Amino acid sequence: MKKILIALIMAISVATPIQAMAESVTQSDVEMQPSEQNIEQIIDEITSEPHPINSDAIQNAKEYIIKYFGDLGYDNIECQKFEYNDENNENAIRRSSQVDVFLAPTAENATIDGTGENIIVTKKSSTDMTKNLIISAHYDSAEDSVGANDNGSGVAAVLELARILKDTEMPYNVKFILFSGEEKYMLGSRWYVGNLSEDERKQIIGVINIDTIAEKSDLGYMAMIEGNKRPDNAEYDEGLKKLAELNKNSMSDLFTSSDRFYLTMATNSDHYPFALVDIPAVSIVQDWQDGLNVNDSSDVKENMDMQRIVEVIEKVTEVLSEITSNN
User: Fold this and answer.
1) CB atoms < 10 A from the CB of 130, how many?
2) What would the pLDDT profile of 51-80 be if each residue is shown by its tens digit?
3) Mean pLDDT computed over every residue of the chain
4) Which residues contact 213 (CB under 8 A, 6 or more apart)?
5) Is the Cα torsion angle 8, 13, 16, 21 positive or negative in sign?
6) How far apart (Å, rounded) are the C-alpha atoms in residues 322 and 3?
7) Which of these, 106, 154, 179, 275, could form a disulfide with 188 (CB 3.0-4.6 Å)?
8) Is residue 24 packed enough to be buried (19+ CB in 10 Å), middle (13-18) or exposed (0-12)?
9) Which residues on neighbouring strands pair with residue 174, listed in sequence order?
């Protein structure tokens, strides 16, 4: 891990003040490495009970996450509140490929059935403040699940990445975003993307979303993408794998060079709203070919392998050295 972070620092050294670079290099090995103890503590704190969107429990999770970032020294913390209407949301889901419908507010001129809040924490670059990389996860659970893996694992990964990267100079802003309402078909990320101006969309280098990575398993991970490219000829239209290859993007390419990550097409995580407006986005999700215990009472910490979260954190940290503000 030490070698990975030093490589990251060296890769961006052209844009890094010498003093800041020296301070980053001299961080202790312990500070630079993912901590399984930290990861377990985060999961214990936010997954003690089901915490679906619009519940009292998700407010507790939100307050814990905000405090965690504050204790790390982050001070650019924003809560983006949104409202939703269940019936209109169901209608939008049925038309999820239509950008103007799927990304539109669902409670406009309708009964408000609930509210959610996205947590947006910005780590500003001192060299290029016009470009943003998003590292995200959803922090809500299903109604009948404490959500240890789905998605306590993703939240823990994002919070640990925020700790590890806190004092490392980057050639772009990093936005750590915890979305609410993913279990209602990505309400939070849809709201976030739908409220971006065209200029703000252009400022996003890419999105790395982390969702459900840590149930005990020897299998690897999916790099989930979506896109609207389709083959022009009949010889090249067989299979999801070929379709995914046609739609791969700059973010998915960072992961699929490793045999632990394979490319696939999917619309069921928070990368999808970004993909709809042509922002390079990937969701890292564990391979579920053997099935996963999620969205019910079986999704508990005892069924998780914390080393899988460490593995994903290390991979994300590694690929950051390959991302520039020109991506």
Assistant:
1) 11
2) 999 999 999 999 999 999 999 999 999 999
3) 90
4) 149, 153, 154, 157, 221, 284, 285, 286, 308, 309, 312
5) positive
6) 15
7) 179
8) buried
9) 123, 133
Q: Are the CB atoms for 315 and 213 separated by under 8 Å?
A: no
Query: Which H/E stretch holds residue 132?
Result: strand 132-138
Residue count (the chain): 327
- Report strand pairing: 77-84 vs 281-286: unpaired
Distance CA 89, CA 104 (A): 10
Q: Are 181 and 302 a contacting pair, CB within 8 Å?
A: no
In angstroms, rounded to a whole number, what is the distance separating the alpha carbons of residues 72 and 69? 5
H-type alpha helices, 53-167: 56-72, 86-94, 99-102, 154-165
Residue type at position 278 = D
Q: Which long-range contacts (CB under 8 A, 24 or more apart) does 155-158 make?
A: 155/42, 155/43, 155/46, 155/65, 156/38, 156/39, 156/42, 156/43, 156/309, 157/39, 157/210, 157/213, 157/309, 157/312, 157/313, 157/316, 158/210
**Other CB atoms within 10 Å distance of the CB of residue 190:** 29
The Cα angle at residue 193 between residues 209 and 181, in degrees rounded to 5: 65
Which tens digit of pLDDT belongs to each residue from 281-317?
A: 999 999 998 889 899 999 999 999 999 999 999 999 9
What's the burial of 298, exposed, middle or buried (CB within 10 Å: 0-12/13-18/19+)?
Answer: middle
The backbone torsions φ and ψ at residue 244, rounded to the nearest 5 degrees and listed phi first, read -65, -40
- 176 forms bridges with which residues in the sheet? 121, 135
Pull the structure tokens for residue 102: 């799927």
- DSSP class of residue 235 equals G
How are beta strands 221-225 and 261-265 bridged, if at all?
parallel
User: Tokens in use for 231?
Assistant: 């083959």
